[in-house]
Amino acid sequence: MILTGQMIGVPFILWLLWTSFEFGNSDQIFAILGLVGLISMFTKYYANRILKALIFVLMLSPIVRRLTEIPLEKFNYLAFIIPFFVFVMAFLVSIFKPNTK
Fold first, then answer.
1. Which residues contact residue 45 at a Cβ distance below 8 angstroms, ignoring those fewer than 6 apart?
2. Angle between helical axes of 49-69 and 78-96 (0-180°, round to 10)
3. Is pLDDT larger for residue 36 or for residue 75?
4. Which positions ≥6 away from 29 have C-beta within 8 Å?
């Protein structure tokens, strides 16, 4: 169970790693999808706009899963809200920004 203040960057990455190897857990597929998206950001395919959108969806899927699984009042604090919206907005800008190539 996530307590208020624990849905931040480092614990969430540790949660992704731990859950991806925890067999029989319903969150395992979402953790794997998030890790695939995170790893895909560092490949040469990240320059493609369509693949950027797919990577964004992959990285967002475990967060959306956690938001639908746990009551929303657990996420109602600025230490989660601000980084979450910065992530979403920055990634959307990077998707729609024209390539300089």
1. 51
2. 160
3. 36
4. none
Question: Residues 94, 22: contact at Cβ < 8 Å?
Answer: no
Percent of the chain with pLDDT over 90: 23
Token pair 């969150």 in the structure block, residue: 27
Helix (H), strand (E), coil (C) string for the chain: CCCCCCCCHHHHHHHHHHHHCCCCCCCHHHHHHHHHHHHHCCCHHHHCHHHHHHHHHHHHHHHHHHHHHCCHHHHCCHHHHHHHHHHHHHHHHHHHCCCCC
Instruction: Supply the pTM of this predicted model.
Output: 0.77
> Judging by beta carbons within 10 Å of its beta carbon (0-12, 13-18, 19+), is residue 34 exposed, middle or buried?
buried
Mean of pLDDT over the chain: 82
For residue 61, the model assigns a pLDDT of: 92
Residue pair 4/70 in contact by the 8 Å Cβ criterion: no
Rounded CA gap, 68 and 62, in Å? 10
